[in-house]
Amino acid sequence: MRPLFFISINLMYENMNDFSLTIIIPILNEENLIHSSLQFLTNSISLSHIEKKNVNIIFCDGGSSDDSIELLIDLQKKFEFKIRQKKFNSPSVGKTLNLAKNLPTGKYVLFLPIDCHISSECFNQLTHHLSREKFISGGFFKEYEKDNFIYNIYSSLQNLIRSRLLRNLVWTNGIWINSQLFHEGIIPEVGFLEDVILSDKLKKYPNLILKERIIVSPRKYEKTFLKRIWINLLVMISFRFKLKSIEQLKKIYLKK
Predict the structure, then answer these.
(1) What pLDDT is recorded for position 12?
(2) Residue 152: which H helix or E strand, with range?
(3) d(C-alpha 251, C-alpha 256), whole Å
(4) pTM above 0.85?
(5) What DSSP designation does 52 have?
(6) What fold characterizes domain 4-221?
């Protein structure tokens, strides 16, 4: 008779083989990041417990004016992924992600910003939990690629307060959801704060925020760290208390 320990381990990995995931990457004029990000992602998938056949990647382009599409087409000779493209008059992450809404996907869909890196251990944790428990949505803790005291403190506060206590996620948390919700059109297309609105919608479903960290680029903070933090805080307070419209908040956020 086989020990129960080995039986449970085998069952866990059998369930992992049933797991399927679609990774959707929205882009807009990101030709300088595409190759390195795709290489990192495919390496992480290869090193994880997920079978390669159970993962597929979709790039959604919201109307790049650089050579992003040409580069993606060229990279399809080496990597396996799909491309969806549409030029929007007013592009947004939500609109771009929804380009893949009517495509076949895995059981779960993960939205990954092009400047974020997800490790093989993130995939292992995700498959481990989703093969054993029924969660509808979730994300990861995060840390910044720039390893210094200020960024470490900032990411720790984000993980503790925003993610763990408030259960609020943004795109850089690597939000993942059950694919049925995605196909039903849960991703908002309002032009700004679509991740915050999505996160609010998902709170009514069983969700899981994994402590394994996704690596985030600090490029939005590098020139004006404190100013960017202040603007983010101002935007979120104004949004929560409905002090300004989405259009007004977007202008505040983009103001240099």
Answers:
(1) 38
(2) helix 149-157
(3) 10
(4) yes
(5) G
(6) Spore Coat Polysaccharide Biosynthesis Protein SpsA; Chain A (3.90.550)
